[in-house]
């Protein structure tokens, strides 16, 4: 599988799942555009390191995914978009009656509305190029629910629905749109939470992983960012040409329960 000659834009990709997906797309030969809301030297260095490691063109473009005009400008600024990975997301946990309105608005904007805005600008570029792939990073919470995560779950369910609509609107074209639904993924952010979780529950770190963090993941193993990236690469492959408007769960059996 080679993606040489393709340009991939990955939102929220200076760490975690987004960076993992960008690395795997670059490994497959795609030129990549990294993104986040910061504009630090280390952000641009991430792109430079990818370019050197995989011999591709890699750039970093600052854009705040909470702002519609910046979402759209990201695609325009990139100049080409054969592969769009909508990954940017944030989280907040609280009961509905205590859920801050500003947190709800921010989560819906970043986790859901940003994908609408980027896709709206990317699709004409894909049509002009005669090929395109939209890969939305949803979540197991795009297919099921948990308490206290109302905004996140509403947004991720929305991403699944948006993916289906985009797939239907492009069904007769060489463009596909799908959603990847990860369970718990071992990102630096999650890894940093393990010691505190263990301390809170008076457990060893391994017990905290198995009994608390991975409670709902039957495999009792984290997915990796490389696995999520590999799934994205597969969805860009010829083998996935007729896979559109669906979800692929990478959740260790979570949604099989």
Automatic annotation (TrEMBL):
Keyword set, alphabetical order: Oxidoreductase
Enzyme class, spelled out: oxidoreductase
Signal sequence residues: none
Record field: transmembrane: none
EC numbers: 1.1.1.30
Source taxon at top rank: Bacteria
A single GO molecular function term of this UniProt record: 3-hydroxybutyrate dehydrogenase activity
Pfam families: adh_short_C2 (PF13561)
Family assignment from sequence similarity: Belongs to the short-chain dehydrogenases/reductases (SDR) family.
Protein name in UniProt: 3-hydroxybutyrate dehydrogenase
The organism of origin for this protein: Palleronia pontilimi
């Amino acid at each position: 599988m080679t993606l040489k000659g393709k340009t991939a834009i990955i939102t929220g990709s200076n760490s975690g799942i987004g960076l993992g997906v960008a690395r795997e797309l670059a490994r497959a030969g795609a030129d990549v555009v990294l993104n986040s809301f910061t504009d630090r030297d280390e952000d641009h260095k991430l792109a430079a390191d990818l370019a050197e490691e995989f011999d591709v063109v890699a750039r970093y473009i600052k854009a705040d995914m909470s702002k519609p005009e910046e979402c759209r400008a990201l695609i325009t600024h990139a100049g080409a978009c054969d592969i769009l990975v909508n990954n940017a997301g944030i989280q907040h946990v609280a009961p509905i009656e205590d859920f801050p309105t500003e947190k709800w608005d921010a989560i819906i904007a970043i986790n859901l509305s940003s994908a609408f805005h980027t896709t709206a600008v990317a699709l004409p570029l894909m049509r002009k190029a005669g090929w395109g792939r939209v890969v939305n990073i949803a979540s197991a919470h795009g297919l099921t629910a948990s308490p206290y995560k109302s905004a996140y779950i509403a947004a991720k369910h929305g991403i699944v629905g948006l993916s289906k609509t985009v797939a239907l609107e492009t069904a007769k074209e060489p463009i596909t749109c799908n959603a990847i639904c990860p369970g718990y993924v071992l990102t630096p952010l999650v890894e940093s939470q393990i010691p505190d979780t263990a301390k809170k529950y008076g457990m060893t770190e391994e017990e905290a992983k198995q009994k608390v963090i991975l409670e709902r993941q039957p495999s009792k193993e984290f997915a990796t960012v490389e696995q999520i990236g590999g799934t994205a690469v597969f969805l860009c492959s010829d083998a996935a040409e007729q896979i559109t408007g669906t979800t692929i769960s990478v959740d260790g059996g979570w949604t099989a329960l």
